[in-house]
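Weekly structure sync, notes
Attendees: PL (lead), two postdocs, one rotation student
Agenda item 3: pending single-chain targets
PL asked that the sequence for the first pending target be pasted directly into the notes so everyone works from the same version. It is reproduced below exactly as submitted, 353 residues in total.
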Amino acid sequence: ALFSGVALSLWGADLLRVQGGKGVIFELGLNYVTVFANATIVTIMAAAIPMLIRNDESPNVATALMILGALLNIVLDYVFIGLWQWQLEGAALATIIAQSIVCIVGIVYFLSKYSRLKFDRSVIMIDPRMVTKIMSLGASALVMYVYTSFVFALHNRLFMQYGTSVTVGAFAIVGYIMTVYYLIAEGIAEGMQPPVSYYFGALQFENIKKMLLMSIKVTVITGVGFIVILNVMPNLIIRLFTSDYFTSESAALIAAAKNGIHLHLFAMFLDGIIVLASVYFMAIGQGAKALAISVGNMLIQLPFLYFLPQWLGVNGIWLALPLSNIVLFVIVAPLVWHDIKQREQVPVMTPCQ
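Predicted structure, written out during the meeting:
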């Protein structure tokens, strides 16, 4: 938290400039970043506590806590932005206050009789080896969270370079749609992680295979469902993000967003599988492979984003993500399958009768 806060304070303005921020937009963005820089501990705790509660065998409590935070954020956004006109600084404050409530309620849960995990002196003791292990396993999750920002930043800059304000707006719409699916896939992956870790510790490799295959099926079916709906009724989905339906600017935006849906999202389910693969290796203690997949998911896009726009213009930017996902899937799928088949050959020790 200290590192994140210092980093945002020192380089937050530079990050905004890299993404093309200037003038009033830059000032508003800097106000937003500054609030988070001063409250990074709250943001990190609000993300970690529901995960700890879920691993404490209380997934319903964790879900309720996250819903509580989201609803509080919405209400406070209305008050701070809609009523008090605090703009982006108000949005940031709304988020921090909602996250603070999540932290408080989460701590109360761990102090209650419903928690299996009890706080004692060992909780505040720091074991360097354990910290190193946690950081190595958590590094891939960190990269997964950075992934969305990475994709948005690069694509925004390229669309400003090769396209117009209309294509930038179209990418915002398509990006929101993609983010919704990515978060669903991430939720499936995080739900898969605790049982896979348990089965791995219990040497129940067949159950690991079943859990992974079930997660892949749900992720793929959800992704394909998204693709079908988006291609059958693109206008309806796009208009959820626009207010003026009948102006020439709106018509151009809808046309650009439809093009983006067709080119950018046709392989979106592969992004979900890649997330599952990273979390799978994290769940079985192979942090290096999990990190390699998460980092690879970003780095593999760079050559596509460099060359395709030069050859195909705006369409090349749209195609960079799905084509890079196809290439990474071809690498990752055999890696996961080989790991599963290898573990199936390990003899399972049974207790003597």
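Discussion points:
- The chain is about 85% helix and 0% strand.
- Residues 349-353 have pLDDT under 50 and may be disordered.
Action: rotation student to compare against the earlier draft before next sync.
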